[in-house]
Design brief:
The protein has 78 residues and is mainly alpha-helical. Helix content is 64%, strand content 10%. It has helices at 18-34, 40-54, 60-77, and strands at residues 4-7, 12-15. Strand 1 and strand 2 form a beta hairpin. Helix 2 packs antiparallel against helix 3 (60-77). The longest helix has 18 residues, at 60-77. It is elongated.
Amino acid sequence: MLTFVWDCGWLQVLVHTPLTVRAAELQQLYRGLTLATLSLDERLDVLLHVKWVAKEWDNTVTRELVGLIDREADLLNR
């Protein structure tokens, strides 16, 4: 997990902020997308989670990404 490390001289403090927690979640999704050893169900699960994340924003790029995810899921299900 991503954290901030504050060094106070004699003490190091690990801090989890909402941004670092979110970054760790996105990093896990990216790692899931890059794994070649996933089963069909695991791949579909990762694609579904990426689709949910992409739908948080509505713009041309995310709509295209959602379309590509739908196409890949359709091809995997055939």
